[in-house]
Structure formats: structure tokens, C-alpha cells
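Archive maintenance. Older records in this collection stored only the sequence; we are now back-filling the structure field for every entry so that each record is complete. The fields below show one back-filled record exactly as it appears after the update. Entries are processed alphabetically, and HTH-type transcriptional activator RhaR is next in the queue.

ARCHIVE ENTRY
Title: HTH-type transcriptional activator RhaR
Organism field: Sinobacterium norvegicum
Length field: 240
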Amino acid sequence: MARVQHHDHILIYCTAGGGTLTVEGETTAVSSGDIIYLPHGSTHQYQANSVDPWSLYWLHFDGHLAEAFGEHINLPLHRFAIGLQARVVRVFDGVVALRHSSHNIAEFIQGGHQVQALLSYIALLVQQRQPYAVNCFDTEHIRAMMQEHIHAKLDLDMLANEARLSKFHFSKKFKQATGESPIKFFINMKMQRACYLLDSTARPIKHIAAGLGYQDAYYFSRLFKKTIGVSPEGYRQAKQ
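Back-filled structure field:
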């Protein structure tokens, strides 16, 4: 494949074999476990190895947040080794399944959220594997714990105990790894889930709040507005 320029963003994940990637005249080898990000407008070409050809997932995406997500990934030289990640494969498979299963708007909204989650997760993997990354604890394990408790409550003591660190050192290392405090990260995760539910369901806001561990719907609405910038009601109306 060779493109002088293109109008969307491209994400490629190599899961087996190998090949080469050339961007703006510079060529690099690609092997299993490598992720490639090609921003819109970049001149590039790529091809499979003739002896051990690659197996690829690829995704074209665009939108008013696409460039910001590309910058967030911060991929060195357009290619980076993240290893074979079952979670990345699952999301690619899920997006493909949605694409072929339905033309329902809710399905496409879910697919959009899955792509956002995929890009965010890849950015985290890239950051964790940088030489300067601080990984004295398993950040992904903490994120998985937050996801498991997204319908309930977590406090700093519980998270620090899980990481076997003091609250001070846990908070410091988590922020170095993610750019946010643990509690703010957890709240943002809950609010992202709330956005998905507001987009894809007609559930009353008080039910969405309760499902995310907030029995006080007014407190949930204030927290949602502080995080997202608009009230849950305003967010839902804007999407209609």
C-alpha cells in the first residue's frame, strides 16, 4: 500500500509475521506486536515481508477529536512495540463485528466509544513502555480494578492497598504514569461510562447515577457537569 496523502487517521496492529513501513522517506521494520499510527496527510507506504508476511488489523478513523487522540498516543516514529495484547485484539474484533452486525445508531455510538477506549489504552501502553516510565506497580491492574468497581465505590486506601504502597507514594506514581490522580482518573472513567449510557440508552438519569454508585442523583449531576462541562440533561439533549 502506498499513499501520497490521505484524509483520515490510520491505526495498524501487527499480530504475526512482519513487514516494512516507510513514512516521509524513512523506512523501519515492523514485526508482531507493533502498533502503527499514521496521522492524516502523511506520505507513507507499507508492505508485508515476502518470507514471513504479516497479519494485520487496521482501522481508519476521523472526527473532531481524532487529531487530539493521535497526539495523545504520542507514538515514536509512527511505530512502537506494545506486544501482543489480548485486550487490543478484542476491541478490534468488536469493532469489526459491530460494523457488520447492524446499522442501528446505538451500535455505531458503541463502536465510537470502543475506538476512543482503544486509542486511550494504546496511549497508556506506549507511555508505560517508554524508558522514562515509572512502573513500580502495575498500572493496568489498577485500571482493571477500577473498571471492575465502576458500578460501586473505591477510595484511595483501597487502591493503595491493592498496589501495596502508601497512599502518598501510590498517588505520586499513578499520576506520573497516567497524568491524573487516582480518584480523578476513576471519576473520569465513571463519567465516560455515563456518557455512553446517555448516548445509547433512554434510562432516566437517576438510574444511570445509581448504576454508577451515586445514590444522590443531584450530586452525580454536579460531578458530571464539573467533569464533562455540561449537565447530564444538557449532554443528552445535545446528542439528540
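Update note: The domain at 139-239 is CATH 1.10.10.60 (Arc Repressor Mutant, subunit A). Residues 105-128 form the longest helix (24 residues).
Entry marked complete.
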